[in-house]
Amino acid sequence: MAKPISVLLVDDHAMFRAGIRALLEAEGHVNVVGEGSSGDEAVDLVRELKPNVVVMDLSMPGSNGLEATRRIAALELQTNVLVLTVHAEEEYLVPVVEAGASGYLTKTSADTDLLEAIRIVARGQVYLPPKATTLLLKQYKANEADEGVGLNDLSTREQEVLALTAEGFSSREIGKKLFISPKTVDTYRSRIMDKLGLNHRSELVRFALKVGLLKQV
After folding, report:
1. Within a 10 A sphere around the Cβ of 28, how many other Cβ atoms?
2. What pLDDT shows up at residue 24?
3. Which of 82, 109, 173, 184 has the fewest Cβ atoms within 10 angstroms?
């Protein structure tokens, strides 16, 4: 039997955390390992507990969820952030993706979509509802004149590595899928980043969304 997904809940409303904890633990394959009420506390708890997934609110006192997400991403642990917020996608989606989050979900959808979002993010993949994906695509289309390099500038193999990297697969996992070594995967990824002028995985996700390589949820 697969190991339960370890989850850290971060929200400044204790009653809301209690409701989410009950929802997740009733599922049976999720283990809530901790709770926090601020961004600073979230970062400290991630260092201590190293959960698979952080379910992160954005609006909190002190260091907010966006800044905490950025700091957690910089730790380079095997912890992925799923933002769960009252804010509509139009308000925070792009900053959240750029901060390094692996998913975005509004609280109005938590009762139906949260478990599936956690499963996807725990696998290292990206969870974006169709509306969120559409919003990103519209923004990138509006700014596409600024993009000097496109998908056609990448080889078929580079496109494959790009798509799998954007979906969250490790070099080892990509290597197994494409029958090449992890070192070769890293070489392709470095070449892709150089060609596209990108520096971070979140930028790869954005590019993959724009050109249609990343599947919608």
Report:
1. 8
2. 92
3. 109
Question: Residues 178-200: what's their mean pLDDT?
Answer: 88
Task: Name the CATH architecture for the domain at 143-211.
Answer: Orthogonal Bundle (1.10)
Please provide the DSSP assignment of 105-117 as one string.
EEGGGHHHHHHHH
pLDDT digits (tens, 9 = 90+) for 126-137: 888 777 767 666
pLDDT exceeds 60 at position 216: no
- Report whether 85 contacts 65 (CB < 8 A): yes
Burial of 179 (0-12, 13-18, 19+ CB in 10 A): exposed
Average pLDDT for 11-26: 93
Size of the chain in residues: 217
State which CATH number among 3.40.50.2000, 3.40.50.2300, 2.60.40.2890, 3.40.630.30 fits the domain covering 5-129. 3.40.50.2300
Extents of the domains making up the chain: 5-129, 143-211
Q: pTM for this structure? A: 0.68
